[in-house]
Write a structure and sequence with these properties.
The protein is an alpha+beta fold and about 375 residues long. The protein is built from eight helices and 25 strands. A six-stranded antiparallel beta sheet has the order 8-7-12-4-15-16, with no helix packed on it. Helix 6 links the parallel strand 22 and strand 23. It is globular.
Length: about 375
């Protein structure tokens, strides 16, 4: 009997509305996303999302590639036995299970060939040492390498939403949920920390969208890429096979976005919540749903914002009050105090020296490493 009898998410992104530009369609293009496999297993399956699309999209073919002793080895994914799959707007599809023997630590890649005109409206922007893709003009899904003159790197991850592996029962997934701060590097550094520390029973799944808020979302094309509101996002993004815990680091955009219609017609003051409304949103939209899935829930405090273009003392007071609630409410299984990990102790409304990316909102790479170090060992060690 195989020791592999549990499906567990081993890689994942959120799916949101992509940044609206002049060109919104692609044709005859191959997307390729490298993925480091945390677990050993004997089968893979992949979820693809057109959650935010307004038209059906067709993935002409999807290929799993790996480096073998004799060069590249390819395994085509199927969908109900078919090589291609049509994904209706607002829906997601999961491939058939592909029998592939995977070793923990191995790198594979997922190549998606889009043969016909395809609306590129479902994806998300992420960065980090483990999060860089590429695209090439033409069908290079089975190619060992993309041609240099026809390809470029990208941090936009389109359609590919989750990779699951059939693995050992001890393995599990940890979900990192949030906005642009989580869409950047700290979840990657967390995965690297776990691996290098020898904690090999946990995969870090990133569910993050730049600009997203707990209580609101934008309906204009200027800010559509800021994503879906929490009530819509969380029930979908918490759907991770084998997940045991979720870290929620979310809410700063609810505080910093409103500026009044006289400054920006799409950002009225009426969008500004109270701290009580933020807390109730987290409780009702996130914690209650996560508990229903059997997940342990960890709060993540909001980072310093002094110097950001919409900073005011009133917004800072809201951040401090919300952080106090995240630390002490008793609603969570624990708190990951990201704020304490990156703030200047002598001036706690600011990042400490070397920890500010330069915009006074997003951390530097050094700070992202500190955020990863702030996650308690208990979330990474075997349970």
């Amino acid at each position: 009997m195989s020791r592999y009898d549990k499906w567990v998410g081993c890689w994942g992104n959120a799916t949101s509305i992509t940044d609206r530009r002049e060109a919104v369609y692609a044709k005859d293009i191959t997307l390729r996303y490298p993925i480091r496999m945390v677990f050993s297993g004997d089968s893979l399956r992949a979820r693809f999302s057109n959650l935010t699309g307004s038209e059906a999209v067709t993935l002409t073919k999807v290929v799993i590639g790996r480096r073998g002793a004799n060069g590249r080895e390819n395994v085509g994914l199927t969908f109900g036995g078919s090589e291609s799959v049509r994904i209706e707007p607002g829906t997601e599809v999961t491939s058939d299970a592909a029998e592939i023997d995977i070793a923990a630590g191995e790198e594979i890649d997922v190549s998606i060939y889009l043969g016909d005109y395809t609306q590129m409206n479902a994806g998300t922007l992420v960065t980090g040492p483990l999060s860089t893709g590429a695209y090439a003009y033409g069908d290079y899904a089975e190619a060992e390498d993309f041609p240099a003159d026809l390809s470029r790197k990208t941090n936009w991850f389109y359609f590919l939403n989750t990779i699951e592996i059939r693995t050992e029962r001890k393995n599990r997934a940890l979900i990192c949920y949030g906005d642009s701060i989580t869409a950047q590097s700290w979840p990657d550094y967390l995965g690297i920390r776990a691996w290098e520390s020898g904690w090999r029973d946990v995969a870090v799944i990133r569910r993050a969208v730049c600009g997203t808020r707990i209580l609101r979302q934008y309906e204009c094309i200027t800010y559509q890429a800021y994503g879906l509101k929490g009530a819509t996002r969380f029930p979908i993004e918490a759907n991770v096979a084998g997940a045991s815990d979720v870290i929620i680091q979310h809410g700063i955009n609810d505080i910093i976005h409103p500026v009044g219609v006289e400054v920006n017609r799409f950002r009225p003051w009426s969008d500004m919540p109270t701290v009580e409304e933020l807390a109730e949103g987290v409780r009702r939209l996130y914690v209650e749903h996560a508990r229903g899935l059997g997940l342990e829930v960890w709060s993540g405090t909001l980072l310093p914002i002094e110097g950001w273009r919409t900073y005011t003392p009133e917004r800072e007071a809201m951040r401090l009050e919300f952080n106090a609630w995240l630390r002490t409410s008793g609603l969570f299984d624990g708190c990951v105090d990201f704020d304490a990990a990156v703030r200047d102790e002598g001036h706690p409304s600011r990042f400490r020296a070397g920890f500010d990316s330069g915009d006074h909102l997003h951390p530097s790479e050094t700070a992202y490493k500190a955020m990863a170090e702030a996650v308690p060992e208990g979330l990474l060690r075997a349970k």
